[in-house]
Amino acid sequence: LVVYNDDHNTFDWVIDCFVEICKHSLVQSEQLSYMVHFKGKAIVKTGVKKVIKPMKEALIDRGLSAVIED
After folding, report:
1. pTM as predicted
2. Cβ atoms 60, 66 nearer than 8 A
3. How many CB atoms lie within 10 A of CB 33?
C-alpha cells in the first residue's frame, strides 16, 4: 500500500490516518508521514490484497492518495 504526497493534508491528519487505519504506532506513523512528504511517496503497509484493499479505500475516503502496487 503506497501513499503519495499531496499539498492539502496536514502531517497531523496523515499521522492520525496511519494510526487509525493502518494500526501503526504514533512514532511509525510520524516517520512514514515524513517519508511521504520528502520522498513523494512511501510504502505504508504490505500484505495480502484482501486485507490491504479496505485500508486503501479508507485512506482515500479520508482524502489521501493511496494505491496498491504489485
Report:
1. 0.95
2. yes
3. 25
